[in-house]
Each structure stands twice: as C-alpha cells, then as structure tokens.
Design brief:
By secondary structure, the protein is mainly alpha-helical. It is built from four helices and no strands. It is elongated.
Length: about 130
C-alpha cells in the first residue's frame, strides 16, 4: 500500500506539475506524454490493486485497512472508466485546437488521487501497527 501511495504522489503531484513548468516542452507534447503516462499508470495501479488483494488473502488486514482498500478500488475504477476517458477526450480537443482550460474532471482526478494516497498510507499504517 505504501509503495502504491508513493507512486501516486510521485506521478500526480511531482512529475506531472513539473512537466508543465518545463520551458522548452511544447504543450501538445506535454499533453501527449500525460495521456500515455496516466493510461499506463492506470494499468500499474490495477496491478497494485490485484497484488494488494492477493496479499490480503494471505495476511488479512485489519477491517479498517480492508475498508480503505475498498474505497481506493472504487476511486481507481471511477478514474479508469469515467475520468480517464473524459480527460483523454479533452486532450484530443485541445490538440485539435480547442481552448486550454482546466475542467472539473481535472480537479476531480486530483482529489481522487489525494484521497487514494491518503487512504493507502492510512491502510499501510493500520496494517503495520496491527502486526507490531
């Protein structure tokens, strides 16, 4: 859970904002990189989810950690099947000459990632403290 949280923090809150501050990186290139990065990361997160569920079968977490993992799973699936397609369509619009504006989908995605990271850190702490 902690590794997954670190990956979210590293990608969503460090690498992505920095990418848009690079003075020589054209916006279309940054958007394409973001599109592919977040698409791939969604698959990585699905792998983290599967691995965490398998681990929970062999070392059942405390109920609170299990509930936190369930909430993370719901957020991940909403991102994957609702927000990412919506954001991908938005990138296509911008690349086709549409106006560059942040939509509510961007903010929702960021809030979901904040929630996922916080829940995963909480679940990791809960799992660790229940074993020690």
């Amino acid at each position: 859970m902690a590794l997954w949280a670190g990956a979210i923090i590293g990608l969503s809150f460090i690498a992505t904002p920095v990418k848009f501050q690079a003075p020589h990186l054209a916006l279309p290139v940054a958007l394409e990189v973001g599109r592919y990065t977040f698409g791939l990361f969604s698959n990585v997160e699905l792998g983290f989810l599967i691995a965490t569920v398998i681990a929970a079968v062999f070392a059942p977490p405390r109920r609170i950690a299990f509930l936190m993992l369930g909430a993370v799973a719901v957020l991940l699936l909403l991102e994957r099947w609702w927000l990412l397609p919506e954001l991908d369509a938005r990138v296509s619009q911008i690349l086709a000459g549409g106006a560059v504006t942040l939509t509510s989908s961007h903010w929702i995605y960021a809030v979901f990632d904040i929630c996922k990271a916080a829940l995963l850190i909480g679940g990791a702490i809960s799992s660790y403290t229940s074993r020690h």
